[in-house]
Amino acid sequence: MWRGDDRAEGGLMLKAEDLPPVWTALARMQGALPPAAAAPDPWALLQKGEEDRLIRAPGSRDSDAHPRFDTPVPPGGYSWWYVDALSNDGQHGLTLIAFIGSVFSPYFKRSGRDNPLDHCALNVALYGPKARWTMTERPEHAVKPEADQFAIGPSSVRWAGDCLVIDIEELDKRIMNPFRRRVAGQIKVWPEMLNTEAFALDPAGKHLWHCLAPRARISVEMKAPELSWKGSAYLDSNRGSESLEEGFRIWHWSRAHLGKHVAVFYEGQRRDGSTFASALRFDSAGVPHEADLPPTAPLPNTLWQMERVTRADRGHARVRRTWEDSPFYTRSTLHARLYGEPVVAMQETLSLDRFCNPIVQQLIPHRMPRARR
């Protein structure tokens, strides 16, 4: 969540010397940043059992198959709505995340997390040429979540009947550079399939994941920077009644389009030491079906020495491009084969142990400012 570094497989376009000395020193500091927790034993992850697989949330079949932004968020909890996308030509990518109870906010953490609505943000990450990254936290009086619309300062996210519309008016934030560039435009996401079922990531149901649109089309029309492209997308939502770091040590997630179907893999280690791993295959109607887990496929460590893994046939995948590389989070696109088909997959790794590190907590405000209005 630090920078969309536009690294391509076959050549490292971002070099260590391109970063400020304090960043490279911290990345290499012995013991200061713990490893991102090696992936749990793959054999343990393949065990069957309720606690080792995602659990269908009670009543989830009656869930709305589109975002609802007015669902109450309890003290200590969070909700977010997530979009990722790749352009048809493969040159551009993006992620958009709208937060209530911003899970990576040091301000929310320090506040005791009593009022999630006082810590909202829209994270916009544009990858590739003209890359931008912004995530400004907004207080309660500057946000308004309604059933089909969520205003976050001057930006908004709304459900327009058949598509999700994101109107963006933000300023980016760069380390060691006080000049903030405008990030403005409109993005539309049209689901090609909708799923009504949510899944619990833990036996107690404190953390829920709802893959709303496993496959979607996207149109990107940005005024600043000037960008226009179309591509394929994905839309989901997470919510919880406690912080992520209370529930988990690490997780790995990936998704890939398989013809008319979509495969999603979600695995990790909970804070109590138990592990979970699931493979879901969404059919052309958006209905999820459990699938066999392919073998674990290790991936190269990132510049910040994040250890990341995915799932792929024969346990082999290669990094196509690392879009985002931070001390505790990484996002990449991969080349792999899944269930016999060649795919381009989106993959993320999140280390909550690293997120909690005091050094990382001191760095985050330089990337994620908090607005007064």
From TrEMBL:
CDD domains: CrtC-like. SUPFAM superfamilies: AttH-like. This is Hydroxyneurosporene dehydrogenase. It comes from Novosphingobium sediminis.
